[in-house]
Amino acid sequence: MKNILLFAFIITFVNTNAQIKILFDATKAESAGNADWVIDADIHNIGFSTGPAAAGAGNEANPQRLPTPLQSNITASTPEDYWNGGLSNWAIDCVKKGYEVESLPYNGQITYGLTSNLQDLSNYKVFVIDEPNISFTANEKTAIITFVQNGGGLCIISDHTISDRNNDGVDSPQVLNDLISNNSVQNNPFGISFDYNDISQSSSNIANNPTNPILHGTAGNVTQVKWSNGTTMTLNTAQNSTATGLVFKTSSSTTGATNVLCASANYQNGKVVAIGDSSITDDGTGDNGDTLYNGYTVDANGNHQKLLMNAIIWLATATPLSIENTGLTDIKFTIAPNPIQNRELMFTYLNSDNEPTQLVIYDTLGRTVEQMALSIDQINLGSVTLTDLKAGVYFCKISNTTKSKVLRFLVR
To answer: Is the pLDDT of residue 249 over 50?
Structure first.
């Protein structure tokens, strides 16, 4: 039986200009061995005394949640060594773009929807995982995939095969493939898998896509990359039709699904960028005794900085044009009246399959203002209250497991 659901929304004035926050993972031995994939660490060689991260601990970085000195003091001229970490240059660039950055310390929790965890992924727009050396738990994998489902931006960076820096039997391509293909949400939801190989080469095999925001974004045009012991990826567009190769190993495959060096995908309300070499994030600083070099601004004539910053900007900002309408003939969704009168948004939604339904409100910059899974109680009640809206133009997206539709509305 088909159900026609009528929802009434009470809209109140609040500030929607909340800081976009980026979280850099440090829970998976990202600083083991010669790696130092952290944004800042005040303490070294703490917390790696036992467990799989212990091997090769030496002088390993143990980043705290908030980098120091304060990021609020960063200006356009702040140098990379303001913080101490192999990713400090990238993180400082993020702050200069107006984002807020944090580390998830080695003993932090990867969760989604756990209100008691101050660093729950729901509090962030982008989650960066740069060369993880410890496998994710089942609960962590569910949290990460759910984060993307609900509008999060995920940046996953691998290194080459047989790069096990902490000697626990797995290395980053295996860890990331396990995350992607062995989770409780969906097998290979991104349509991307990392190959088990080891390549070193420069490549100018850039996809011919002049409007792509990762290749040709506000940080500049990407014209080349340099892999220094990295890996490639294989795309599966049957799993995710949006999986897209951006940079390729060979010129003959720049429109194909193999030999991919950098890729992107949309997944439900979120986005993913996948990169096959951690060397490009390295700014040449970090732990004393590590063999580090500057791949971020020196290699490939500075193109890695452009690529990584364009990726972050794309992940952090979902413009309304990128909010895709799929299966429009199967979703009966209308808003009336529009413009909104008397601060009340009402719409009709025909749920022909009685599937679980999610509602997301975006502002004109593509930022998620409000989102919720419509529960049975809410459906029976026929109304919910939204809080984070003020006068202006918004987009309302309603979706179930296979279909979605976006409508524009005005709040006066």
So the answer is: yes
